[in-house]
Amino acid sequence: MAQAPALPTGFELPLEPRLPRIGSVDQVAVEARATDLSRRSIKREAKLFALDLAVRMMDLTTLEGADTPGKVAALASKAMRPDPSDASIPSVAAVCVYPNLVQTARERVGDSGVKVASVATAFPSGQSPTDLKVAEARRVVELGADEVDMVIDRGAFLAGRYAKVYDEIVQVKEAIGETHLKVILEVGELGTFDNVRRASLLAIAAGADFIKTSTGKLSSSATLPVTLVMLEAIRDVFEETGRRVGMKPAGGIRNAKQAVQTLVLVHETLGLDWLTPDLFRFGASSLLNDVLMQIRKEKTGKYQSPDYFTID
């Protein structure tokens, strides 16, 4: 990161002491480092560990207009037992659904340890009055959500109205209390790495427990360079304040190779402490099956047909 400029116009004075130095992003350096780390080779034992870890870090997700209670119940069953024929495969971290299906997911996962996450705050656009966003976030917790994935108001952010974005996150966090809050930046709409870093630091300062790349509704989302920018923001906050914040890349990570590359990025940037579902998640709708196939291949030496695994 280069030298740290003053905070951008739009931050109110009380906000300044709560943010670490913003800095600007060297795009060439970030892209080069992400490429270098993506080429790291790992041994078979380490690969199996990484694949097992990837399963435990997944938020198995369905966020479609055609979602039904039956689909969510089936997804929750798969979250608890991803491969019914292999008891050594762990359950995933969470199932992520729309608010109206939180109770269905809650009833199905029971006390299995799988968390229920719900999107909120006018997902995926974030274009709704603040009081309605706060009310929705509070309501999904009342319905049984363990985690809330909120979206920032990108229109306000891109217009330089940073205090509004900050205030909405603060209000949502206050409304949900100890419930884990993941703040979705929708990086594909932010335009630059500088904006991604600024939005990451803003969300963290406002109380985010996790920062998340995207809604999964855009084609451009969780690339390795943008993930690295967000990881470095988390690292800088930790080094300055001692506070640990989680990260969730979502959208665009569809196969085991990409998942392992991302875990290498996490390890090299933040260290072993972040290699836990408490501090890192994958937003996954199609990733799980490929990881299961790769685990089976590593264990048996043979690829299993995709037809063997249920479709998410």
SSE blueprint and pairings:
Blueprint (H helix, E strand, L loop, with lengths): L26 H12 L5 H13 L1 E4 L7 H12 L13 E4 L4 H8 L5 E6 L9 H13 L4 E5 L2 H5 L3 H15 L3 E5 L8 H14 L3 E3 L11 H18 L4 E3 L7 H15 L11 E3 L2 H14 L12
Parallel strand pairs: 1-2, 1-8, 2-3, 3-4, 4-5, 5-6, 6-7
Helix pairs in contact: 1-9, 2-10, 2-11, 3-4, 5-7, 7-8, 8-9, 9-10
Structural features:
8-stranded parallel beta sheet; globular; TIM Barrel; 11 helices; alpha/beta
User: What's the architecture, going by CATH?
Assistant: Alpha-Beta Barrel
Number of extended strands: 8
Kindly, what is the distance between the CA atoms of the first and last residues, rounded to a whole number of angstroms? 39 Å
Q: How would you name the oligomeric state of the polypeptide chains in this document?
A: single chain
Structural class by secondary-structure content: alpha/beta
Shape descriptor = globular
Q: How many helical stretches?
A: 11
Characterise the protein shown here.
With 312 residues, this protein is an alpha/beta fold. It has one domain: TIM Barrel (Alpha-Beta Barrel). 45% of the residues lie in helices and 11% in strands. The protein has eleven helices and eight strands. The protein has an eight-stranded parallel sheet with strand order 7-6-5-4-3-2-1-8. Helix 9 (224-241) links the parallel strand 6 (210-212) and strand 7. The protein is globular and about 55 Å long. The N and C termini lie far apart (39 Å). Residues 1-14, 16-20 and 307-312 have low confidence and may be disordered.
